[in-house]
User: Fold these one by one.
Assistant:
Number 1:
Amino acid sequence: MSLGQKLAPHLPFLRRYARALTGSQSHGDNYVRAALEAIVAAPDGFPQDVDARVGLYRTFQAIWNSTHYDEMEGTGGDADREAIAQARLAGITPLSRQALLLTAMEGFTVADTAYLIETSPEEVEALVADAIAEIDRQTRTDVLIIEDEPIIAMDLETIVRDLGHSVSGVAVTRDEAVAQAHAQRPGLVLADIQLADDSSGIDAVKDILAEFSVPVIFITAFPERLLTGERPEPTFLITKPFQRSTVKAAISQALFFNAATIEA
């Protein structure tokens, strides 16, 4: 099997990580593209002592730590998001965010994460603890949940409230979601893709975003379909079945990049 064939199954999930880390689809996908270009340019330099997934993320981490793409992308939305992020970095470092996302969202072990960010397992645990402590002090908001499966909706409600946020409503159809968003403007939306009446959570979110800007996290059993890098796609994505820690990390990271949650 060629190196490209070994890496292909892991690319959607690297895009998920990169988008969550940067708060932007285009910014994150650019980093992934740069990592792939580096591998193509020097395939002999690809890590041989670890499995393909770990080697891919290690290459990405090297690009992330050494390259800044703001100049390539120009100003505008991505630059604004990065400025917002920097404003919140007083108590949480980029390395802390990487450690949290790699463990909670990507499911790497502490040992693998230590290898990826070139530190010790003990330091990884300290970094994650620092990130969680800062997240606990994050600005609270109202969350709209768009989910037609009652058990999953209840679980999401519990996670949201455990983080200190409020639930503005739970909608099971597109029309219901839009109506609830208009009735009480949320600060965050958690949206399933397929809804009860065969309507789409994606369409519901499009309708909501046509009225006002709000960060969105999509929830799907088929993440690869929304992580192709070939069209406008979600920045934040959670895979079903999900772990509570994954949802918490995604919520906190989405709010981290949201200008509306920056404290005055």
Number 2:
Amino acid sequence: MTDQNIINLRSADPFADVTGSSASDSGATGGAGGQRSSNLIHIRIQQRSGKKTLTTVQGIGEEFDKKRLLRAFKKKFACNGTVVEHQEYGEVIQLQGDQRTNVSQFLKEIGICQAEQLKVHGF
């Protein structure tokens, strides 16, 4: 019972489901792990230090300007953030705090994606 209460203290790879950590997934993806779910937008939360968290948004198409999206996120959610270039996943948006529900609602409202294209991860 106590193990279930402390599950969020384990260190885990937040991108493990995209990369396909098992050997059977690597054959099905055809190489690059990020290409497997190119039509899904992944919204994750990562624990920083103490109770500080970081929200990452990965998988937004190349046709959208991520810096303009970041500017809209920062203004609407009153938080800070940045766009990080990841060697495997491309451009990833990082926001301070737990913004998972805000980001998912915002992306659906402005029409970037449908509800079935969003995958929200976290504890």
Number 3:
Amino acid sequence: MASNTVGNSSVTIKLKKKIKANWPSLVRYPIVSLLVVSGLGIVLHVKWLELQLIYRSHFRHGQLDEEKKEFDVFLSYVCTSEEVEGVSKEACETTPKPLEVLLRQVLEDQWGYRLCLMERDVIPGVYTSDVVLAIQRSRMLICLLSAEYLSNNNAIFVLESGVQALLQKSALKLLLIWTNKAPAALIHPDLPTQVQRALKVLPRMYWTSGQPVRATSDFWKSLRKAMPDHRMKLVSLIKP
């Protein structure tokens, strides 16, 4: 209330409490956000190879040039026969029939796919260049993994070459078929780092000898779905 010679005057004043800025809270949120972004960046950096393989395994990456392909499937395996050393390859593929023999019969004889086999279609010579060229000329790489396979340097080279082709934006499909019940125990540290990480994320199937008929039937149905849609024509192999 104020008063002077003119008269009296009154006014109502409302006081408002000033809220102090909570500086620790204002600083905390940007720091937390920075830590979250940094953590995601580290995870992406560490798992980038696996993420690339997962993406390119499920989504065809690159163009499929049919003129450069001569085979539907490059079948990579190591003979699992328990015979003594020195046995012939023919004896290795006798009864009981291992999976590599069954695959050859089903894929090539029954389903009509053109297979690339090391002992039949790869010319002896400079091993590394022949294998890389054979993989490049195939639409799909199937590796039959076992303890014998993962301890064989030549077999590991085939698998590693397939992984590198997949990372190089190739249209190659890669499928792993484990023939052991506990595959994780077979991934030992002596394998190349790229192969170790690829074995954990690449498409896979499991085969156990002596499994029930229904399980066997499900295996072949799943394999049929994973195969290329179209088969290579034999006439494409004939060159002038």
